[in-house]
Amino acid sequence: MRREVPLIITAVVGIVFVIQYFIPHYPFNQLNSWFSDWFSIIGACAIWLGALNLIKISADKIYRKRAGWGYAVVIILSFLVITLIGLFEGESFRDFGTKFDWMYRFVYTPLASTMFALLAFFVASASYRAFRARNLEATLLLLAAFFVMIGRVPVGDAIAMKLSIPEVIYPSGVAVWIMNVINAAGQRAILIGIALGIVSTSVRVILGIERSYLGGD
Amino acid sequence: MKKEFLVYIGILILAIILYFFVTEPVTFSPTVSLIIIGLIGLALVLIFVRTIMGKLVGRRTVFSFVAISVVVPFFMTVEQPIQTSPEVQSLYQAVLDLKPGSKVLVSFDYDPPSAPELQPMAETFFSLCLERDLRIIIMGLWPQGPQQAEMALQKVMDEPAIASKNYRYGIDYVNLGFQVGNEFVIQRMGDDISSMFQTDYYGTPYDSLPLMRNITNFSNIDFSFNLSAGYPGTVEWVQVAVDRYGVDLGAGNTAVQAPQMYPYLRAGQLKGLLGGLNGAAEFEKAAGRIGKGTKFMVSQSFSHVIVIAFIIIGNAAFFLGERRRKEEVVE
Amino acid sequence: MDAIGLWIGAFLTLGIMSFLYKDNPWYKLSESIFVGVSAGYWFITLFWDSIYSKFYIGVSQEGDNYLYVGAILGLMMLMRLIPKVGWISRWPLAFIVGAISGFYLINYFSSNIMRQVANTVMPLFSTDYGQSLFSASVGTIIDNILVAGGTFAGLVYFFFSKEHKGAFGATAKVGIWVIMVTFGATFGYTVMSRMSLLIGRMDFIFGDWLGLIK
Lengths: 217, 331, 214
Description:
B: 6-stranded parallel beta sheet
């Protein structure tokens, strides 16, 4: 029963969502509404699971005094501070001027943004060290990257103007052509390929052939 | 540890000096800007020479160049012509084709890390809509989205041309807030928007909002604009709102995912596309507005040139090294 | 308070950036705060927007008793934290997987296969169906042929059930060229995106915090 019940749930829910696309009337539209709302609540609990698991791991690290346990204290304290603030602020916790909004603007936003911004440095360093035109394919990749990078910023056309290059092959025009023609073709091939994979996997999941999401016994 | 502590103190002292004693914005003259460009070029030539001699520069040198290429242009006076690409022009034209009073649904599906690229797009779009007396309905599939929308809206509302029109919340624009559920939210909105948004961002009941009284589902929306940084985002809006409910959709995407949207643009599933910061700058140009998109393009240009320079230097060293190795084998 | 907030934001920003020099206690502290605050942010957001607004309001004020099923499935999901009864979390997981599979099956088929194939298999030499032959410009004709041919060649490349030999192999070769150009374009845009994020952060440091930029 530990595996059979989940398989039945997957099949029923999957089939309802397929049918409601073609028959958006009672009872499938009502089932669609119910299932969508349940999905939201379960999704919220899944995120909660991640947060609570983090606290569990951090608490375990502190209890066993593992290396870096001091930072685990910081993690738990930060979590508790923002959670308690958010709980006490009430439903309007996001309004401008609340303590939660202050933490969002001056703690969460700088941290989240800077984490992503660091990638700029690493992409430049990796390009310098590893991006080599070893063969025809790599050269095509490099040339496309070159034209897109130089063509999508104003300096590309500014340099072309100074060098008296004909306007028809200005970097901006070449970049637009690459994006709208070759890139569109390649992305479309990838899109269709991925979609075929998703459709076949979805059919296998609904029919119970694919069971890897259930994990081991 | 002592050395690190001294570095922290040094940074703190520098910050205090700059914060309290440099009270005016700093701007370099065109001459100084050109000298700086020349010095950076010279430094790159030195790196090129070092690299072809077999001495790859350390990663911290590369990091320093990236930082300089981004920061220094903030203070420079450089003019750059911005060309509007066809996909941006299509979006602009799609908005121009809307009659005054048309209802525009704007979905904010991004968070603060993506704000440098998407926030300028949002501000320009709001400015364009409000100038043309379009009615704006804001929502978000990401929790931070409606907050980003509020920030963009407040900034645009403070502009004199918009402020003089005295737009009223609930009548001219509305923020429905965030709703959890990803693509299922879009699907339910196709039948009944109020089933997903019983109240707005401020807790006002849906039926109490004059703007929303005659809006049941997508068939009452004239145009949709989606600002997206990932999942859920433009792909879900295309799959559900466009292909199932026939919505006219324009999109603003981060540059990371913009290339993936071109098949949808080509198939007519998107009416226009803004890709990354340069998309924002082009949209500002089309709308006749100077925002952060335009201001940041100088830094964007410099950083691209630096990355390209390092790629060329690396490859030059690689090919010269290969030639040297082949000559040694022949000998 | 905002001035204090700016200094705190700058402290945390520079802390994360100090990683570029090397891993250090300032970075580790900032990273730990980020992990804790992110988890707390999502916890609270989903509490108020999903658990309270959807479930509690739905049940207590709207009388939507069907939401109890969702709440029970949600609680089952949380049982994963207890190893002895963790297996029960498979039920809500099965629900999620089933919902997504059913939804994606149709939507991906419709949008990413049917609409994309329809737009690829289109008049190459005219502006639309019913228009005269060669009504499209030379540039548009070339573009149409390249998009149709490039898409086909790319799909042929991804077909690994047949050996890439002869004409099939040559088409796959063209396909890999198209995909390499696509990846190059994607790389260029990725560089643009990362640099934009860095520009935003530097604008915060030098503009919002230090006030050195207009």
